[in-house]
Amino acid sequence: MRMLRDISGFITLAARLLWHFWPHLLLTGIVGLIARELLLQGAVRAGFYAPLAGMIVLSLVVLVKLLVVVVMLNCLRPALPALAKLRGSAASVSTDGDGRRADRLFVLTAAVSRDPSTGALRYCNLATSG
Predict the structure, then answer these.
(1) Nearest of 107, 53, 58 to residue 80 by alpha carbon
(2) What are the pLDDT digits (tens) for 6-65?
(3) Range of the domain at 58
(4) Closest Cα to residue 124, out of 112, 107, 116, 106?
(5) What are the angstrom distances between the C-alpha of 80 and each of 64, 65, 77?
(6) pLDDT value at 128 more than 50
(7) Is 97 exposed, middle or buried, given 0-12, 13-18 or 19+ CB atoms closer than 10 A?
(8) Does the pLDDT value for residue 116 go beyond 70?
(9) According to the model, what pLDDT value does residue 129 have?
(10) CA 52 to CA 65: how far, in whole Å?
(11) Looking at the structure, do residues 35 and 55 belong to the same domain, yes or no?
């Protein structure tokens, strides 16, 4: 029963995020699609002149796809509950003068932590921690 509740929670969260952020996501996706098509055409044209140049431009296509995903996740960032929870706990952990840098490092390392007794890496469940 818990599994169904978790699955419905993820689907509900995805629907809510899509409902609130669809203009941002659509614009980012369309700009990425246009950039991808232009770069693919440029890769073909550059490939006629030099095969290495075509491969270099083709690698930019993959980079644009990655950039689009990162920008979309950055648009969703304010509404993601796990990141909000991490920001709240990072503010209480960080007491140094460079709190903003410490928050970023905390978010990057939040999914994995070390077990103090064994020193082994373990997964942190953000849904039950806190």
Answers:
(1) 107
(2) 888 888 888 888 898 889 999 999 999 999 999 999 999 999 999 999 999 999 999 999
(3) 2-78
(4) 112
(5) 24, 22, 5
(6) no
(7) exposed
(8) no
(9) 45
(10) 21
(11) yes
Distances (CA, A) of 2 to 5, 7, 14, 82: 5, 9, 18, 19
Q: Is the pLDDT of residue 95 over 80?
A: no
Residue 104's closest CA among 94, 115, 116?
94
Specify whether 54 is located in the same domain as 18. Answer: yes
Residues 7, 55: one domain?
A: yes
Question: What's the rounded Cα separation, in Å, for the pair 70 and 35?
Answer: 15
* Same domain, residue pair 34 and 92: no
Q: Measured between alpha carbons, how far is residue 10 from residues 16, 18, 21, 110 in Å?
A: 10, 12, 16, 20
Q: Which residues contact 122 (CB under 8 A, 6 or more apart)?
A: 112, 113, 114, 115
- Residue 89: partners with Cβ closer than 8 Å, 6 or more residues away: 106, 130
Domain tally for the chain?
A: 2
Same domain, yes or no, for 112 and 74?
Answer: no
pLDDT at residue 80 in the model: 78
pLDDT at residue 122, rounded to an integer:
54
Residue type, 14: A
